[in-house]
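Quick one - inputs below.
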Amino acid sequence: MEITSDTAIDVNDFCLHFGDTKILNHVTMRCKKNTISVIIGRSGSGKSTFLRSLNRLNETFPQCSSSGTIKVFLKKNWVDIHAGTMRLEDLRHQVGMVFQSPNVLPMSIKKNMTLPLALVADMPRSERCMAMEQALREAQLWDEVKDRLKDQAATLSGGQQQRLCLARALALKPEILLLDEPTASLDHKAARRIEELIIGLGKRYTLVVVSHSLRQTRAIGEEIFVFREGRAEAAFSREKFLNCDPARIMEELF
Amino acid sequence: MARKGSAVHGRGSMKHLLFRAAIVLAWVSSLLLVLVIGYLIFFLLLRGLPTLGTDLFFGDTPAWAALSGQMPVWEGIWPACVGTLALIFMSAGISIPLGISGGIYLAEYGRGKSKHLLTFFIDVLAGTPSILMGLLGFAAILFIRNVFGIQARTNLLLASLCLAFLVLPYIIKGTQMALEGVPDALRMTGFGLGMTRAQTIIHLLLPGAAKGIFSGIILALGRAAEDTAVILLTGVVANGGIPRGLSDKFEALPFHIYYLSAEYQNPQELSQAFGTALVLLCMTSLLFISAHFIHNQLEKRWK
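Output:
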């Protein structure tokens, strides 16, 4: 794949170690703009670590070292995320993330939304409520929570909590959104709902989704990357992937 | 087979017995604790309650004149109350910001050798007997006198400083433990959202750790209120009136209790000591309650 005008993430020969353990092994791949790129692979194949490399979150762990380059297209510019030209906090602001299990803050639903807006986006108080409502609507949560914004976020159901996390990330107006197995801790129905949401968001955001299920990958994936032992082993377009025999994929790649 | 069976059964009942014994022991221990505290409070009330009144606080001086500072109090414990409150607030004012900052450093920033070294020194500080802390203050005054030739004497500020150092480890350790107990996921969330480390600490981690930090502060307040050895060497006097400034000598409740119970001339003075002890207990309880109240208010604001 060449770098084209519709590329949003360009990873080149990227390696990552925790101490002496090599987690990512010369990963090279490109993700398209406003497209849902899904990363699949066995557990331990480095897919979550790779996702966290895109917003440099691995560096909060001790003894993390990396080599190679990752460039992202943000604010109409190519940024080498390790070059130091962009503040780490700005990178994480622009490249939003939703974690595997819903990590709502131990505060009210409203505060969950407005605190990051105040601290990270530096948004004046008068605009925060509007931005909150807009993001909650985008995450299809507004109607469920509009009458209980003062309640603790932990009182929401798992699926609602995960949508709140999604809304919290969306409110910060990221250009790229990283989703780390966003439905792993949810029941079937809540998972379907999030998947529908992801498909809708894929038209406006560059999404990189780590998935644990083949069914989900077939449902939402537009570009599919298979990770094995810390490498991006194969890449499929949606058509190619859907035409593959699932059993064969399982056998060959997992 | 029968023997084997009974052996297993025997071991099982032995375990069961031990378990029951542990439960009984736990109950007895907590009962004993309540009994001891109850006895202490009952005894204090019994001996101290009759002495409570304006006489105890102000002696012969009219209450309003004493409270407004128009007339000095010679017989009562009012100046000692003021002295102790001043000591507590000043040492808290010094030790709380220092202690919390120190705890934050150790939990969130300190790595490797510097963290080990600092932890070691704080442990040493925590193990320092309070009389040594008093000696340190006393030596500091001697040092100032000899080196700078200033006619300095032990005073309220010095005593507060020494007390602050005495209670510093409680707050540092309390803060550090509480912060280290906050789940890593919360840190990750803060960083993942694009918060700076400082923002994550102030807005997410400190509220999460507030309970632990407050218990450290309460421990420190109580220690600062009761300690006698430190102030003994750094400026407390039996009869000095209300301190007129930071460089003045002062009276304090724990010292007053110690002084009265050691050198009482008549039964009235001894019962005054019990009354004073009761006042000190009430004062610290009040402080704890207000600390608790502040904690609740802060929690409401954070949520």
